[in-house]
Write a structure and sequence with these properties.
Strand content: 25-35%
Largest sheet: 6 strands, antiparallel
Strand order of the largest sheet: 1-2-3-9-8-5
Radius of gyration: 13 Å
Distance between the termini: 7 Å
Number of strands: 9
Structural class: alpha+beta
Order of helices and strands: EEEHEEEEEHHEH
CATH class: Mainly Beta
Shape: globular
CATH superfamily: RNA polymerase II/Efflux pump adaptor protein, barrel-sandwich hybrid domain
Number of helices: 4
CATH topology: OB fold (Dihydrolipoamide Acetyltransferase, E2P)
CATH architecture: Beta Barrel
Length: about 130
């Protein structure tokens, strides 16, 4: 199970890559494995400013639909539109082409509350 050390994580199984005040967010390899085959990713919150832990979208698998929770407060500035036609990228490349959104972070202090790879591995038992 891959848990890259250069990323931050949430207890809701999202990963976060931070570059200055821009964060790229997706779901972890563990999460996509638990969900199964992803058939649809919906994000209708682009250009909206949301608080941390607000629902920013949903991911639909063959058997279930799961909410996606924002790990940091800020404005959603981009959705990975390739997921509209190829949602399976979340399964095949969760940390690369399967990214979901980019956001502008409004409260950098919240970054300290995110998990590092070691803490996330403890949550998933890896």
């Amino acid at each position: 199970m891959s848990v890259p050390s250069n990323l931050k994580y949430t207890k809701d199984h999202e990963w976060i890559s931070i570059d200055g005040d821009i964060a790229t967010i997706g779901i972890t390899e563990f999460a996509q494995g638990e969900l199964g085959d992803i058939v649809y990713v919906e994000v209708e919150t682009v250009d909206e400013t949301l608080d941390r832990e607000a629902v920013f979208g949903t991911v639909e698998a063959v058997k279930t639909v799961s909410d996606l929770f924002l790990p940091l407060s800020g404005e959603i500035i981009e959705f990975n539109e390739s997921l509209e036609s190829e949602p399976e990228k979340v399964n095949s490349d969760p940390y690369g082409d399967g990214w979901m959104i980019k956001m502008k972070i409004s409260n950098p202090d919240e970054i300290a509350d995110l998990l590092n790879d070691a803490d996330y591995k403890k949550i998933i038992g890896a």
